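Quick one - first record:
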Amino acid sequence: MSLSVPIPAPRALAPGLWALEGAHVAWRMGVPMPLRTVVARLSGGALWVHAPGPLTPGDAAWLEGEGRVAHLVVPAAPDLPWLDDWQAAYPAARVWRGAEMSEAPWRREIRPLSASGTDCETVFLHRESRSVILSRLVMAVETAPLPPWARVLVWLAGIDDSDGKPPPGLTGRLGGRGAVGDLVDKVLDWGPERLILTHGRCYETDAAGELRRAMRRIMRDRLWDRALTEARRR
C-alpha cells in the first residue's frame, strides 16, 4: 500500500548531501513506511544513491545537473520496487548490497559498517558532513500522515517518532546485543553530527545523544561504561 502524497524537491542536508522524500514502501502487514532516499556527491562528480525510491522526471533532471549516478546502494530490507527504474535510467551504475560494500571504491568518502547474523544491516558515515545514514537500525516514523490502522501498528512496534529505536526482532537477527552494541560503539566513536534515517524523521543535532537514547535498552551497560570513561577524560 502507498500514500498519495506529492514528492517534494530534493532537500539539502549538508554540502554535497541531499534527501529525496515523500515516498512510501510497504512494510510489515502492509504498513506504508516513509522512505528517504539519500544522494551524496563524491569527488569527481559521481553520485551515490542510498535506498533508491521513485525516480520522477523532476528528480532525473535534478540528478543530471548535480553529477553522474554511479552507485546504487540497496538496504537489506524492505524490498524497493523502483530499483529496476534506476538501473534502466543509469545502466552504468553499480548496485551495492551487503558485505561487498566493505571493498567499495567510495568507502573513503562514505564509510560503511555492518552487523550481520541471519540478517544484515549496514550504516554509513558521510565523512565530510559527519552524517550517519541509517536504514533500519533506528526507525522514527511520524504517524500523523498514516492511515489510523497503520498508526496503531507503528505505535505497537515502538518505532514512532516520539521514541525512535530498532524495530522488534532486528537485534536478534543481527547477531544479538553484543553485535549490535559493537556496531553502535563504533558509530559513536565516529563522532556523528546528525542521524539521517531511511524510515522516519532525521536528527539534525545531538546525533550521539539521540543514538544513545534509541539504543539504551539494548546496550545499557555499555553506555554507562562509556559515560564514565568520558567523564574521567574531562
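second record:
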Amino acid sequence: FDFGETVEAAKLDLDWHSLPVSAPRQSADSFEAKALAAGGFDSADVPPRYKTPYFMHIWSNGYSAGYYAYIWTQMLDHDAYSWFEQNGGLNRANGQRFRDLILSRGNTVELGTMYRNFTGRDPDVTPMLRYHGLTPGAATASGEQ
C-alpha cells in the first residue's frame, strides 16, 4: 500500500509539472481524476496519499516534479543491498568499500558516478521490484509468494 501510494503521488506530481506553460487553467479535482485514471491509479484500494490542493510537497520546498526521488532512493537502497548479498554480505571488506567509495566522498563526486564506482554498474530496479512482489515468482517483503 505504502509503495503504491508513493508511486501514485509521484505520477500525479509529474503529470502536473508536465503541463505546458500554455495549458489553460485546470480544475484540480478534474485534472487529478483524469491523471489518476490515465495512469491506472484510480483504484479505491489505493486512494491518493495527497489531494492536489494540499499536496504542498510538490508545490513548494524545491520538490516540483521531484517526488519520484523517494522511489529512486528506495531503488538504490534495494540495489545496494543486493550488491552486498551478491558479494559476500555485510563483511569488513564490503563495508570498507562502501565507506571508501560512497560515505567518504560526500558530495565531491557526481552521485551516479559514485554509485557506479561502488557497484561496477548502473543501478538496477529489479531488487526493489522483487522486494515489493512485482516480479514473477517474487517473494514480497512479508515473505508471501
